[in-house]
Amino acid sequence: CGQERFPVAVRAVYSYPRAQNVTWSSTNFKTILSWEPKPSADYSYTVEFSVAGGDRQRNHHCIRSNTTMCDLSVSLTEVKSCYSADILSEPPLGTTSDDTEFPHTTSPRFCPYQDTEIGKPTFNLTVHEDKKTITLHVTDPLTAVFKDDHQLSIRDIFSDELQYKVLYRKQKSTGTKMQMFSSSVIKMTNLDKGESYCFSVQAHIPSRRSEKQFGQLSATKCSHNDEEPILKVYSPAVIAGGILFILLVIGLIITITVIYCSQKRKALKSGAEGCPLRDV
Predict the structure, then answer these.
(1) Any idea of the CA torsion for 256, 258, 260, 266, to the nearest 10 degrees?
(2) Where are the transmembrane segments (predicted)?
(3) For 58-77, what is each residue's pLDDT tens digit?
């Protein structure tokens, strides 16, 4: 008799497991909320999010879903605000319920402007005629943020706060130097003439807390010096190997030529001995 006091729907609600290990991952404002475990056929997940102090909202892709992630990139439009989210454990899609409250788990706070990771920038090199100046043309990474149908770059969002850290070294050296620049067009001057240099670049946002100030490091690119001496381009062992190979090829050609000429002379001599002498 005691069991009949509670509707079946209420017992089902509180059998739904809560989401666990709720985390944010974000690069260039492409922001994913994820959690565990994967739901069974008996329940689903709905994500509700809100800016601090604001009303709760829903992303239509993340309502009664059987996945364990939700892309909120287009929903977190106020990039300088902070957000929180709730993952609700609800009945599956297509199932009705009279209940208005379901088990939920609240995410950590997420502030896009301060927390999103900055991805790897790309850049091209231009070597000047004096061979002592190299210009790096950095392409500011694009973000998942759009304004008036225009996709914004990290420069559009961070403006003057965006800097670039340049790591560089001579191509044959391991000693690395560093300089900071505020522009995306970076002129490296007073380099050693006749030397090739290697560069890598990463974004720097000094207003952030220390562990979030630097973005991902770019791939390394090296300049090429057309006038570089061959001893700097190739090691002595490689040069010696190349010379030895050339000498072997020349020796082989000479040997074949000598053998061929010797065989030909023998053939001519044999032919001459086989012919009778003519009368005078």
Answers:
(1) -150
(2) 237-261
(3) 999 999 999 999 999 999 99
